[in-house]
Each structure stands twice: as structure tokens, then as C-alpha cells.
Write a structure and sequence with these properties.
Order of helices and strands: HHEHEEEEHEEEHEHE
Length: 188
């Protein structure tokens, strides 16, 4: 489902609010505000991604956001749980290995799990799953992690995101041009 112009305007407004709020929240990187902001980014990004139609038909009853090995958003996820993406209510799961991601629409990778994700990634992720890595923690270098399709990154005192368009295309996903306008696009 393609976003309507009103949805795009709302997304742009939300991003502006998130950037302003995140500049204050990043003073305490583990704060609940940061988790809420990250959850809002994930939710809104998912609304601007198209999965293959046959997959959406198979997963009609729910939109599953999986955490890779740990739930790093904690209570932040509560703000999006039950909301809808592609007319499916959002729910979460924690998976302990990538081969368990076949029922996931999105896989979130926390900073502490980046190395393990990289080690496990080889040929394991074959389904069209959007991968989003959290690179916002201090000391995390985003140029070292081009293995996720989207990276949440620090943008000055706020938060932004990068998109690896090659990985997105290889997975059979399509990202709206409206979302790409807000991102740093990488083609490694």
C-alpha cells in the first residue's frame, strides 16, 4: 500500500518532532524517550516499505517486528504495539537466531548484537525481511556496519537513518521515494 500525501506530511512532521526530541533525549541514551523515538522511527519506516504481495497475503493477520536476541526498545515498543502497518496489527517477538526470522516482517538488531548478527548473516536470511540496526549508541561507528538494510544513526544531537538500497533490492523489498528523501542512501 502506497502512502497518501497526508501520511507523508504526517511522517515528515513526526520526523521533525523526533529530531527535536531526540536531541534532548540523547543526553541519556538509555532513557525511555529514546526508546519511544526509536519505536516511532521503526513503525513509520515500516509504513513506507512494500513487501512482495504473496508474502503480505500469507501474513494477513499480523505485522511482526522481531528483535534479534534482545528486546532493546523495552517499553518503547508499547507505543506502537497493536497499531497497524499494511492493515495488520503490529506485534513483537524475540528470536534467538536468524533462521527463525521466516515469520518476521522486520528484524531489529540492537547495538550489543551487531557482531553476532554479522556472523550469522551469511545465507541465513533468505525471506524478504526488513533489517534495521541501532547504531545510535556512543562509540558505534556506522561505517563498520553495512549489513542491515536500515541503520538508525546519530545525526548531530538527534537521530537519523541510512538506507542500504542494494540490500533492500536484493531482499525483494521496495522503499517509498518519500522515505528515501529523508534518509542517507548508501550503495556499498
Amino acid at each position: 500500500m502506497k502512502p497518501y500525501p497526508v501520511q507523508v506530511a504526517l511522517w515528515l512532521s513526526l520526523c521533525a518532532c523526533c529530531l527535536i526530541a531526540s536531541s534532548r533525549a540523547f543526553a541519556d541514551p538509555q532513557s525511555e524517550k529514546v526508546s519511544l523515538i526509536k519505536a516511532a522511527f521503526v513503525y513509520n519506516m515500516a509504513k513506507f516499505v512494500d513487501w512482495p504481495q504473496n508474502l503480505s497475503i500469507q501474513r494477513q493477520d499480523r505485522f511482526v517486528i522481531c528483535y534479534y536476541r534482545e528486546d532493546f526498545l523495552g517499553r518503547g515498543f508499547e507505543s506502537i504495539q497493536g497499531k497497524k502497518v499494511q492493515q495488520r496489527p503490529v506485534e513483537k517477538r524475540v528470536i534467538d537466531a536468524l533462521h527463525r526470522s521466516n515469520s518476521c516482517d522486520v528484524v531489529l538488531i540492537g547495538t550489543s548484537q551487531l557482531q553476532q548478527f554479522h556472523l550469522e548473516l551469511d545465507d541465513t536470511l533468505t525471506d524478504p525481511v526488513l533489517t534495521i540496526a541501532d547504531l545510535t549508541e556512543p562509540g558505534t561507528r556506522n561505517e563498520d556496519h553495512h549489513h542491515a538494510m536500515i541503520n538508525l544513526v546519530r545525526d548531530g544531537k538527534g537521530m537519523g537513518f541510512e538506507v542500504n538500497l542494494n540490500l533492500v533490492t536484493q531482499a525483494g523489498l521496495t522503499i517509498s521515494s518519500e522515505l528515501l528523501k529523508l534518509a542517507r542512501v548508501n550503495r556499498p
